[in-house]
Specification:
CATH superfamily of the largest domain: P-loop containing nucleotide triphosphate hydrolases
Bound molecules: adenosine-5'-triphosphate
Radius of gyration: 30 Å
Strand content: 5-15%
Number of domains: 4
Strand order of the largest sheet: 2-3-4-1-5
Helix content: 55-70%
Structural class: alpha/beta
CATH topology of the largest domain: Rossmann fold
Shape: globular
Distance between the termini: 85 Å
CATH class of the largest domain: Alpha Beta
Largest sheet: 5 strands, parallel
Order of helices and strands: HHHHHEHEHEHHEHEHHHHHEEHHHHEH
Length: 489
């Protein structure tokens, strides 16, 4: 059709030129119209690629399960659901009801999107991605229509690309699939969710295009029970933060293309990054390489990684220079944290710095010896004392405190609350939701007051070490572990 119109337009122009009409304005106008048409088409293409159009398909092909580190259990669990797409005959011979939906549950940046793309690659399926928020509009019915379009699009693309299966990935599923009746404009939300349920029920193992829906969320508790019942998202796969081995694997993946001075350094970096997600680790590897490049170093060294950890946790170094008094106070504050940390947990201080970064004027980085998931009351109390150490040191030196301890106090309070809610306080065994606010407040306050006294006493008894550490930090700005140990001994 497009070709006919172009041909007809050209013929008309030639005819008008022959009979002597000035066609220049017409040609200019036509040119503008073509440019406008192409621009609108590009907009459409961008929107389409968001929904996993050709670009989505291309990217998914590049990711395989080998590119995902630290998620072996999750990958194995997902793998079983994929057999339905890979060998449907075997599944039906065994009389197995194929899975229609798999829910990936875990914190942000742990690799859920990567897993869905790798799944599409592994099963040679068409990959279509959308985010829960894309379905929510002010106008009733729009979301439901988008859900229908998404499934239709998946089928159409699979047929066009000669594929017998399609994977639809919906990120932030809790926005689209929250419990019905919970939202203020609930009619629109409910219609959209209902449509998703209808589409899922319509997926049939004998369809020419087999469809598997993969949802991702970090709030599975918010999802409507109808979504989680057997026959819908009947498999939940936990995609957790990686453990030490997992972090090392992820670092290896993201440093494959980087010249490292010593690949052995990744062991230490993996140990020092407890709580980091895959996305944090990718950013860490990238930042380390950027720091090496800035210094014109031909290789990425261990100290580049260490600096990158601070950058990922706290943000970029700031040019803003605090006043001399502030620098002195921050040095005392950080010395308080560091001295307590080393006294209560020997070997725990990795570095201390007063170089401002992000929101922090200084920072003491701890070196967790091993990943830890369970804590005793004593360990939690030590955490509280280390956090209180900054303000206590200021008090010993100046007889007053500053606003610099605000974040520390919040952390103390959260840890004290953890002690109470875990049944480790004098309140005994409690249900977190049923503790009267007054009792919770009083118990947290008591725990912190006792520990505050102990913290101040401990630092007073070691004030010589505290002050010499503070003056070294003030002079040298950053102390690594080796230098820190030299000073306190
Ligand atoms: P969100 O919940 O915020 O959407 P997600 O769990 O879907 O996050 P991804 O988008 O898959 O996370 O990961 C973001 C980036 O982090 C990836 O492109 C990759 O570079 C890195 N990454 C995350 N997890 C891993 C992992 N397990 N192995 C390797 N790289 C990872």
């Amino acid at each position: 059709m497009k070709e006919y119109l172009i041909g007809l337009g050209a013929a008309v122009l030639v005819f008008l030129a022959i009979i002597g009409v000035n066609i220049i304005p017409l040609v200019l106008f036509g040119g503008l119209a073509v440019v406008g048409y192409m621009f609108l088409n590009m907009q459409g293409a961008v929107r389409f690629s968001n929904l996993g159009g050709p670009q989505g398909k291309k990217r998914s092909q590049e990711i395989s399960f080998g590119d995902i580190g630290g998620q072996d259990t999750a990958i194995n669990e997902l793998g079983e659901a994929l057999e339905f797409l890979r060998c449907p005959e075997l599944i039906s011979k065994m009389g197995i009801r194929p899975l229609k939906g798999v829910l990936l549950v875990g914190p942000p940046g742990t690799g859920k999107t990567m897993m869905a793309k790798a799944a599409a690659n592994y099963t040679s399926s068409v990959f279509i991605a959308a985010s829960g928020s894309e379905f929510i509009e002010m106008y009733a019915g729009v979301g439901a229509k988008r859900v229908r379009q998404l499934f239709a699009e998946a089928r159409k693309k699979a047929v066009k690309q000669n594929s017998s299966s399609a994977i639809i990935f919906i990120d932030e599923l809790e926005i689209l699939g929250a419990k019905r009746g919970k939202n203020t404009s609930h009619m629109e939300y409910d219609q959209t969710l209902n449509q998703l349920l209808v589409e899922m029920d319509g997926v049939n193992p004998d369809d020419t295009v087999r469809i598997l829906l993969i949802g991702a969320t970090n709030r599975a508790d918010m999802l409507d029970p109808a979504l989680l019942r057997p026959g819908r998202f009947d498999r939940q796969v936990q995609v957790n933060l990686p453990d030490k081995q997992g972090r090392k694997k992820i670092l290896e993946i993201h440093t494959r293309n980087k010249p490292l001075s010593d690949p052995g350094v990744l062991d230490n970096i993996a140990a020092a990054t407890f709580g980091f997600s895959g996305a944090h680790l990718e950013s860490l590897a990238n930042e380390a390489a950027i720091l090496a490049m800035r210094e014109q170093s031909p290789q990425v060294m261990s100290y580049h990684f260490n600096e990158a950890i601070d950058k990922v946790i706290l943000g970029e170094k700031l040019d803003r220079k605090p006043s001399l008094e502030e620098i002195e106070r921050v040095s005392v504050h950080e010395s308080g944290h560091a001295l307590l940390s080393e006294t209560l947990m020997p070997g725990s201080v990795s570095s201390v710095t007063i170089v401002p970064r992000g929101q922090a004027l200084g920072f003491m980085r701890k070196n967790p010896p091993d990943d830890q998931y369970l804590y005793t009351r004593e360990q939690l109390e030590s955490e509280i004392m280390i956090a209180l150490g900054g303000a206590a040191a200021e008090e010993i030196k100046y007889g007053n405190r500053s606003t610099g301890a605000r974040g520390d106090f919040k952390a103390c309070w959260d840890t004290a609350r953890q002690i109470v809610e875990a049944g480790l306080s004098s309140l005994g065994i409690v249900h977190a939701d049923d503790i009267p606010p007054d009792s919770l407040f009083q118990e947290c306050k008591n725990i912190i007051m006792v520990l505050e006294e102990q913290t101040i006493k401990l630092l007073r008894d070691n004030r010589g070490a505290l002050f010499s550490l503070a003056s070294s930090i003030q002079k040298e700005e950053t102390l690594d572990r080796q230098r820190f140990v030299e000073i306190i001994h």
